[in-house]
Amino acid sequence: MRARRLASIVVVACLGLGALTGCQVESGKAAIVGGTSFTDDQVTEIYEGAQSASTGEPTPSASPAAAPAVSRQKIVDLLVSLELGRRIVEEKKFPAPEQATKPEEIASSLGAPAESEYVKLWAAWLDVQNTIVEHTPRVGLTDAGIMQVYQALVRANAIQPGMNVTQVREAFGAAIFAEAATLVSTSLGAEVEKVDAEINPKYQPLGAPLAVNTQQGPVFYTLPYVSSDMVTDVSL
Hints:
By secondary structure, this protein is an alpha+beta fold. It has helices at about 5, 40-50, 70-90, 105-110, 115-135, 145-155, 165-170, 175-190; strands at about 20, 30-35, 35-40, 140, 195-200, 210-215, 215-225, 230-235. A 4-stranded mixed β-sheet has the order 1-5-2-3. Strands 4-8 form a two-stranded antiparallel ribbon. Strand 6 and strand 7 form a beta hairpin.
């Protein structure tokens, strides 16, 4: 997988917000976002398609140690985040990426077949969030913002717990990946406030998929919604 693709899997929107409700979702529905519905059957179909990689012999390029475990929760996270991101791109008339992400570029890192709907959704998600990052002014992280990203990595067992903000900033270095994640998350959070969204309680609270590239390969985790008071404006 290309490094630029891995470094840019950075988006999140925890959708346990005031704009979302869970009690009114129709039976069999996983989520409804601005009139777009995602059913439990859709989620199951995507889940089973992603799992099919484990039923046969692993491919030579597969890296099971780096691949995140697929779950129905993560699929709903992906579907809702992608829907919100697409709405942002359309509303702001952002141009399409010059080079679209190919499913085969990311399949082995995700541990799922390139032809699966799960990997195709991830490819689309990468293109959407990369577009948002490219065409939205850069932000800087407050201490609270950078610790939000850190705690998400701790929950994924991807970094040592118990660090203070000074240690985290030192470990993150320039923290470009964290800034990009927060930039997109605040865009998605603003979009949530514009649309009617209902989430099945069993999928709450939601988050969005995120990954950061390391020397050992991509680390996947879920970052909860990062509010706008966790960023500061910086010059481009």
